[in-house]
Amino acid sequence: MIRKFSFAGMLINLFLMVVILINTQQDIIPIHFDYMGNVDGWGSKWIYLLCAVIPFCVMAGAEIYWHKNSAASDEIEKKSFYQQLIPIFCWLFILLDWVFLIIALNPRTNDVRQKALLMISTGIAAIVLSNYMGKVRRNAWYGIRVPWTLMDDVVWDKTHRLGGYLGVVSGLLLVVGGILEVIFHFKWVFKVTMPIAAILFIVVPIGYSIFLYYWRRQTEA
User: Fold this and answer.
1) pLDDT in tens, 77-130
2) Which parts of the chain fold into alpha helices (H)?
3) Of 103, 117, 109, whose CA–CA distance to 29 is shortest?
4) Do the Cβ atoms of 52 and 93 come closer than 8 Å?
5) pTM value?
6) Contact predicate 205/159, CB 8 Å
């Protein structure tokens, strides 16, 4: 039922996106932003429609795959988990697509508000996805897929549990930072919180996986 509503919602989202883009006078708008939130790429406005189509295709592809492999016993647990995760991932992708479109279509919007909107939406996405990190088993698509986690199930599990905790912390940091930037107009908040969140969410778990992998190799020797 949830997946059916997701498909219906995504079709409505596509319709709304088409209506807005048709009524947008600019053909060339910002399509890429650097890590500081500044525009560093321009392109066709229809790129945002393509980004809205991608989640729909991902959902459809997953349904086709699971339908063909539903008889495999080792797929049952994966199917149950990813049927929850994939719609959430797709809707967060759509959320970010709309955030960037709003920023792109309103270049005169206060810079502080733009960055605050980006921080809050990214923070929400990080918090939601991080709640699933500890449940992810080794796979070919999602997670902290570095050589050290892929070679050891224990390293994978512990790294993802740590990544889940740090992801929630990073998300909360971004949300709080975005709120502070809106209320107090602290222009330095974005420059400080984004790098810290990236280090916590990406660099620390990868570093931990390297340490844990070689530590386990030494203790087992």
Assistant:
1) 555 666 777 888 888 888 888 888 888 887 655 566 778 888 888 999 999 889
2) 2-22, 47-68, 73-105, 111-130, 147-150, 153-184, 188-198, 204-220
3) 103
4) no
5) 0.74
6) yes
